[in-house]
Amino acid sequence: GTTNEGLVDGPLAEAWFAQPSRLVPDGDTLWLADPEASALRRIVERDGTTVVETVVGRGLFDFGFVAGPADEALLQHPLGLAVLPDGSVALADTYNGAVRRYDPATGEVSTLATDLAEPSGLLLDGTDVLVVESAAHRLTRVPLGASARAAGTSHTTGRPTTEVRGGEVELAIAFT
After folding, report:
1. Fewer CB in 10 Å around end: N or C, the chain?
2. What is the pLDDT of residue 4?
């Protein structure tokens, strides 16, 4: 990279990154999360030159929650990555509270789990992805092969559940 902040692809020494955070090797490909650009990128060899390619992401201020073809899909501040057994890449889509999946074979982005509390790290553990939910101070298992689902949410309100121990509970409203 050039030390300039942005989303510019090309030869490694000329590429711009916004906040490169997580590197995951997969054969001849090095996957890279670039959170400030809300991007999934890869470093590969093309015609004898090491290059940076943006797979998902459009620019520093282009973010959202959109699945579908990678050139139309949007993420918001992805921090964690894991290469899955089928060769796809799972992403901790932090500010969308989701685990997303990019399939290089189809070029599609899908969603594995939603309603997570700022997922920031992923680890493949057998048939599950172990997710670091940084805003909930916990680890959550997301089974591979499950359709998109809410993780750790109430079935009645859709909001994250909060476990409390027995005894008195004080409810303090900090705003109106």
Report:
1. C
2. 83
What does each C-alpha distance from 67 to 97, 108, 129, 153, 173 come to in angstroms?
14, 7, 19, 22, 36
| Structure tokens, 23 | 């590197």
The residues that bridge with 39 in the sheet, in sequence order, are: 34
CA angle (139 as vertex; 137, 140 as ends), nearest 5: 125
Residue 42: closest CA among 130, 107, 117: 107
- Residues present in the chain in total: 176
* 120 half-sphere exposure, CB direction, 13 A CA radius: 9
pLDDT tens profile 17-56: 999 999 999 999 999 999 999 999 999 999 999 999 999 9
